[in-house]
Amino acid sequence: xxxxxxxxxxxxxxxxxxxxxxxxxxxxxxxxxxxxxxxxxxxxxxxxxxxxxxxxxxxxxxxxxxxxxxxxxxxxxxxxxx
Length: 82
Description:
By secondary structure, the chain is mainly α. It is 77% helix and 0% strand.
């Protein structure tokens, strides 16, 4: 599993945990309701992840990331050492 995938899964886990804890702290004790709150919390980012045109998460994000890395490496080469 690559770094980007681990980061995405950690983000989903945090969203789930925050929503579930919020539901619990508001008095929900039914585990099904708490789990549903957590699943609803990760639904938005999951929809973005499957959208290939989303510049932040979709396939376009991979292209943008590659191009930014190329530009960063090119910038490092151009700087002069003193």
